[in-house]
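Because discrete structure vocabularies remain unfamiliar, we reproduce here a specimen of the format, pairing a chain with its fold in token form:
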Amino acid sequence: MEISGEPGVSYVTTFIGTLRDFDPTRGPGRTPPKGNPVVTGEYSNQIGAVLGRMAGLTANYEFAGDELYVRAKVTSSKIKTNSYRRDDFESAWVQPAVVQSNILWAALQPAKASK
């Protein structure tokens, strides 16, 4: 992919995805400190794992064949305006390339009680 960059700004593309043999275990939610949203469940860090990273205005990802999906997040060195955090940089997400959506969907569904 090609990034239309701004002069003086650097870019890093992070490829994020889930591999076919990921751990689908879902743990219980937690109640974080006051003021934060409630987390309803904890999933394995294999879901949405970093699969690669490239710096520059051109980035590509070569599929190995075991990915369920891959998406890219482009982060610039430019501080985001109107952010609620001081260290928030401008970024953009690319829609995922879905390879095996039915496998991921089925694995994340709650177990059905047997009758």
